[in-house]
Amino acid sequence: RIRQVLINLLRNALRHTDAGEVTVTAHRDDRDVVVSVTDTGLGISPEEIPRIFDEFQQVGDLSRRRGGSGLGLSVTRRFIEMHGGSIWVESRPDEGSTFSFSLPLQGQVVAAVANRDWGKLLRPATEGTARTILVVDSDPEPARLFNRYLHGYHSECIPSLEDAKASGLREDARVFVVTADPSLVGANQAPDEPTIPGDALEITCPVRTQRLIGKELGVAAYLVKPISLEALASALGSVGNEPRTVLIVDDERDMANLLARMVGQIFWRCQTRQAHDGLEALAVLRSERPDVVLLDLLMAGMDGHALLATMREEPTLRGIPVIVVTARDREEDTITVPAISIRRKSGLTIGEAVRCLQCCLDALLTPPLDTTVPARPADPPVQPVWAGTPRHPASAPASSRA
Fold it and tell me: Would the pTM count as exceeding 0.85?
């Protein structure tokens, strides 16, 4: 989990830094190990600092242009606090940001978390009074996403409404959330022919997941760097028999070497070839025809998208399985939901409809800034804006104590 914390912070810093550098530092004090990730990017405005660690929250014009699910910093904070640590950010607009986190030394762990019920964060949502919703999708990823972030409800994944009926779940369920293409799961066939029982709610909320992106690209699997050995093994196993030859296409030679070692760990008899751009890969494909291609999409010159298009056009290359192993790009970087619709056989009362509208407006529209608050004096220099979970009250910046 700490590895994931560092990956999230580094990815966040790189996304917001067009020039300069990203620096990682670490030191140890009497009670903690403190790690900081500093960038020279655009920084964060003071009004956005307090909500930087909120779930599904993105800040700054650059974040909106480059996308992002808005989960990275929220998940990062949760991981750190579950270890008894703290995380905070210091930032000035146009001067960059420093995200820091502390982890208690081994002798301090029990004292740091003895009175905190961290297990509550890990208990299944089915405990207590949580209500069940059925997520209609053959891909379990949306249900897992809802279980992690939808409080007070437990999500169960079912491939189709017919499967729910056959299993006996359909008559008892009160809420169906269709995250797959409605036409594929038997939902929303016609406005006057509800497909759900009684007065249950049918919410159509298509979620664009990695599996869907892979399907759109016509590839066997879609993996996002950094990947685990288990994820690569699962993807390679999904293409059929054990591959004898694998072509790795990545312009980063270190990454290509790493993938080659991982493939060797999974299939020790498998041979790997490397290509570092699309044209080189095309030459190898035409001369040797590997069993599987591991493809990075973001490359200089002929990129992965162009290589995929060429492979589709050539009959001899069309049937070669391709597994995308790429960094987050504009296609994957955002978990998108194009539209949400809510249906019920008896309709919604005006009060229910207004409450739904109120929730949508509160969630989607950022309140305007309060311009009546006087600006901070420019002289003496303003201290960096600080937000996060304080390590020790006595040592926290003044703004956090206030």
Answer: no
Residue 393 has pLDDT above 50, yes or no: no
DSSP state, residue 30: S
The C-alpha atoms of residue 166 and residue 188 are separated, in whole angstroms, by 19
The SS3 of residue 385 is strand
For residue 306, give the amino acid letter.
Answer: A
Q: Which two tokens stand for residue 123?
A: 């208990």
Q: What Rg, from alpha-carbon coordinates, does the chain have?
A: 25
Instruction: Give the up-direction half-sphere exposure of residue 105: CA atoms within 13 A in the CB hemisphere.
Output: 8
Question: What is the distance between the alpha carbons of residues 376 and 209, in angstroms, rounded to a whole number?
Answer: 43
Q: Which two tokens stand for residue 255?
A: 């990454």
Structure-token pair, residue 42: 């655009």
66, 333 Cβ separation under 8 angstroms? yes
* pLDDT value of position 201: 82
For residue 157, give the H/E element and its range: strand 153-158
β-bridge mates for residue 158, sequence order? 136
Q: Which two tokens stand for residue 307?
A: 């290589």
pLDDT digits (tens, 9 = 90+) for 148-173: 778 788 888 888 777 766 666 655 66
The rounded Cα 210 to chain-centroid distance in angstroms is: 10
Report whether pLDDT(379) > 80.
no
Note the pLDDT of residue 170: 56
Place of tokens 């299939």: 267
Instruction: For residues 95 and 93, give the distance between their C-alpha atoms in angstroms, rounded to a whole number.
Output: 5
Residue 340 region by backbone torsions, left for phi larger than 0, else alpha for psi between -120 and 50, else beta: beta
Q: What is the pLDDT of residue 223?
A: 87
- Alpha-carbon gap, residue 334 to 328, rounded angstroms: 9
Q: Is 344 a residue whose pLDDT tops 90?
A: no
- Residues β-bridged to residue 121: none
Query: 128-138, pLDDT tens digit by residue?
Result: 455 788 888 88
Helix ranges restricted to H, 68-108: 72-82
Give me the phi and psi of 57, to 5 degrees please. -105, 130
Spatial CB neighbours of 296, under 8 Å, sequence gap ≥ 6? 249, 250, 251, 252, 255, 304, 324, 325, 326, 327
Who contacts 107 (Cβ-Cβ below 8 Å, separation ≥6)? Answer: none
Report yes or no: 386 and 49 within 8 Å, Cβ to Cβ. yes
Q: In whole angstroms, give the CA distance from residue 79 to residue 74.
A: 9
Taking Cα atoms as reference points, which of 385, 366, 371, 386 lies closest to residue 57? Answer: 366
Reported as a pLDDT band with limits 50, 70 and 90, residue 207 is confident
